[in-house]
Specification:
The complex is a heterodimer of chains A (198) and B (328). Chain A has 198 residues and is of the alpha+beta class. The radius of gyration of chain A is 24 Å and the shape is extended. With 328 residues, chain B is mainly α. In chain B, strand 1 and strand 2 form a beta hairpin. Classes of the chains: A alpha+beta (198), B mainly alpha (328). Chains A and B meet through helix 1, strand 1, strand 2, helix 2 and helix 4 of A and helix 3, helix 4, helix 6 and helix 11 of B.
């Protein structure tokens, strides 16, 4: 391949013009990512990444969601381990349709609420329960007095947490990737003055 | 970056007649109220189809868009600019990840989308089929192509589909870094030596036509869909976005003493509408159909990356792995 890009020129020659179709899971599995921007903020859902396991998912998530804007803590959970209720609208809360269930409090579950449609889920709290349904029923009692449009339930043991703040401390040199290092207003002003004064 | 408002195909409105009228009414009322549609909500199949196509094209544009700019990473003038450009290109690839995820929530797998890209079945923004000859080309892309993308993306961020809007909010925040960096680079060239000035002027000349193409064909010839506007899939017409871009950036370009290679470019102060020479729409359609200067190289590079990474992805797979459509 002959290109203006020296990196492309270095690629080995390749004569396949049609790529083989991707197999299922070629892009690996999906993980939900949550992060906490600062001490004052709640843990909130920010999106998903694809990865082979939680470690790799974390590496991708760290690049994806905390590269430009930092955070102090990140949680990762397999999408397949996240239970989601249906969505409600207008003034109907998901909790309105959740029935009371008895059970044993033998496992911790994390509850995430969608407080406004169009926004992202935020961490609401934990409950001790024996199943997802039981966790929802207990959450209704302890967390259910707000209007909620959607609820996610995750077993705490399925969440992988990274909370060492120093993970997000960056080298001063990295400032050069930011726009703040590229002010050119003075240069422009000098140039405009020069032109005005002939 | 990126994603021009350009390549929305003709849609057949007949499909709409097959939808459940009660649910359709509720869906449209919700959008009218300004509420967002979420992945598990009922939606017309046409809405789903158009959004997948649009978000997917946008995602492809991000990874393909990283190629012309990446050309200059190894030769960026100075260590700091090199860092900034690496970070910018990484941002673009990250944007593709966000957008693919948003499209996945609508039910198309990432594997399928990437297959469709390398096999030429789905499109990406035309502008990346042009070469970046010099560092100045890279500066024009970083400043003006990103500026165009911001105009387009800020409009779409007010759309109706929740996951797409959330991805765009993140993307726009990062684009503003690019815009500042790009402006800085252009100012340095434009206020520099005569050779530097010549470089940036020539780059602007090369990119002006693709920039005018960026927002898509004029409204009078493009397939205009009131339905997509009503459903808040498309938020502004091609001409509206192009006009807004010209309003914002023509003064900034002229202030640097650069010339815009269009003798007919002028603003009608009464209507606020810019007039411009025909930027050769035939060329636009030629490039879309695969005959631009770099179409083949872009797809070849992408295909090779796919092929050469295959064994790594295969080695990472394990039997417990499970694909689940992303939740939000």
């Amino acid at each position: 391949m002959k290109s203006l890009d020296p990196r492309v020129n270095r690629l080995p020659s390749d004569d396949s013009s049609v790529a083989k179709p991707k197999e299922p899971l070629d892009q690996l599995a999906t993980f939900e990512v949550f992060l906490k921007k600062s001490e004052k903020r709640l843990m909130e859902h920010v999106g998903i990444v694809h990865g082979a396991d939680e470690e790799i998912a974390f590496l991708f998530a760290k690049e994806q969601f905390s590269r430009r804007y930092t955070c102090i803590e990140m949680w990762i959970v397999k999408s397949s381990n996240t239970f989601a209720t249906g969505y409600t609208e207008a003034d109907v809360s998901v909790y309105d349709s959740i029935k009371h269930i008895d059970g044993v409090a033998n496992e911790e579950y994390c509850i995430f609420h969608l407080l406004r449609r169009g926004k992202q889920h935020v961490f609401a709290g934990t409950v001790e329960a024996e199943s997802v349904e039981h966790a929802l029923s207990k959450a209704k009692k302890s967390l259910g007095d707000t209007q909620v449009f959607n609820i996610w339930v995750v077993k705490s043991s399925d969440l992988h947490k990274w909370s060492q703040k120093e993970l997000w401390e960056t080298l001063p040199d990295k400032g050069f990737r930011d726009a703040l290092a590229y002010r050119a207003g003075d240069k422009l002003k000098d140039y405009l003055n020069e032109r005005k004064n002939g | 970056m990126y994603g021009g408002g350009s390549i929305i195909d003709n849609i057949k409105t007949t499909a709409i007649e097959d939808e459940d009228p009660v649910q359709l009414k509720a869906f449209e009322t919700k959008i009218e109220r300004g509420e967002k549609v979420e992945p598990r909500d009922w939606m017309p199949s046409l809405y789903r189809k158009q959004l997948i196509r649009m978000i997917e094209q946008h995602a492809h544009s991000e990874i393909i868009g990283a190629l012309p700019e990446g050309t200059w990473i190894t030769r960026a003038p100075g260590f700091k600019r090199k860092l900034a450009l690496i970070a910018k290109v990484q941002d673009e690839v990250g944007h593709a990840q966000l957008l693919y995820s948003a499209a996945e929530t609508l039910g198309k797998s990432r594997e399928q989308m990437l297959d469709d890209l390398v096999n030429g079945k789905s499109k990406y923004s035309n502008i990346f089929n042009y070469p970046a000859f010099t560092w100045a080309d890279s500066c024009v892309i970083t400043w003006l192509v990103d500026a165009g993308a911001i105009v387009n993306q800020l409009a779409n961020a007010r759309g109706s589909y929740g996951p797409y809007c959330r991805a765009l909010d993140r993307i726009c925040a990062e684009e503003s870094f690019h815009l500042k960096f790009g402006h800085h680079c252009v100012i340095y060239l434009a206020t520099g030596t005569s050779i530097q000035r010549k470089m940036i002027q020539e780059a602007l000349n090369r990119w002006w036509k693709p920039l005018m193409h960026f927002f898509g064909p004029p409204d009078k010839v493009s397939v205009h869909s009131e339905l997509l506007m009503k459903w808040k899939v498309k938020m502004a017409s091609n001409d509206e976005m192009r006009n807004q871009f010209l309003d914002m950036y023509v003064p900034k370009i002229l202030e640097l003493g650069l010339e815009i290679p269009d003798a007919e470019l002028s603003k009608d102060e009464n209507t606020g509408v810019w007039n411009y020479a025909d930027p050769d729409w035939d060329e636009f359609f030629e490039v879309i159909n695969g005959n631009g200067p770099c179409n083949k190289e872009r797809l070849d590079v992408r295909r090779m990356a796919e092929e050469r990474g295959r064994w790594v992805r295969k080695a990472l797979r394990d039997s417990e792995m499970q694909y689940v459509t992303p939740l939000a």
